[in-house]
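In practice, a research group might receive sequence data for several interacting partners and want a quick structural hypothesis before committing to experiments. The following worked case mirrors that situation: the sequences arrive first, and a predicted assembly follows.
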Amino acid sequence: MKFKLSSLLLVAVLSTACTPPASLQTPQGKTAYTADQIVVRVNELMNAAIAANASKDATGAPALADNVTRIIVTFCVSTDMTLANTPQGWQVTVATAWSAAKTQIALAGVTNTSIIAAMGAVDTVLAAFGS
Amino acid sequence: MSWFSKSKQNISKVEKRVQMNPALLIALLQQVVIPEVTAIIRAHKNATGVMPTDAQVIAALSDDTGKGIVIGEAWLAAHPIVPSNPPVAGGV
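A structural hypothesis for the assembly, expressed as tokens:
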């Protein structure tokens, strides 16, 4: 229930991002636009993870543990490399890597709200562009 | 209960939720909503307010992936994996 409003807002915001600008003429431009939309959300997730790892909770421990941050950052770096090298053929590679990363993150029991929201953004944009 | 008084109840429930979780809202705004809106505006309009060209979008992809890789690799280099079981001195 707490996330209903933020989830609706996120979906509304992301749905407007899924339409390429009308000024793009070439297939390469449209492909690059799609790939860049993925990269932007992936980088947001990575930045949220690094920020959470840098902040400390009341006990002085990182708000997001190093091992979980490493899972997220590793996924984000490899996704950025894939999208940079193959902007038109990334879907299966990124979807597989994201599924594996989500499983590991879930096993770690992450409850950080910024991370969960950023993961939702990645899910949404991959669902929109991944097929 | 009338529609109006039910709406007032719902609004006060939302207000209470917002008051109870200001940190949640701030974190969501800072980490997700503001970057999202900025990204969408950037994607649809470049710095001069004109729609981006194919070349600009291709350059933006290269730029964004480059930044992400540099930031990510820097964090990974600064946080190497620490072995959980260091070797015991004098034994196998």
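Before designing any experiment, note the following. The radius of gyration of chain B is 25 Å. The longest helix of chain B spans residues 54-78.
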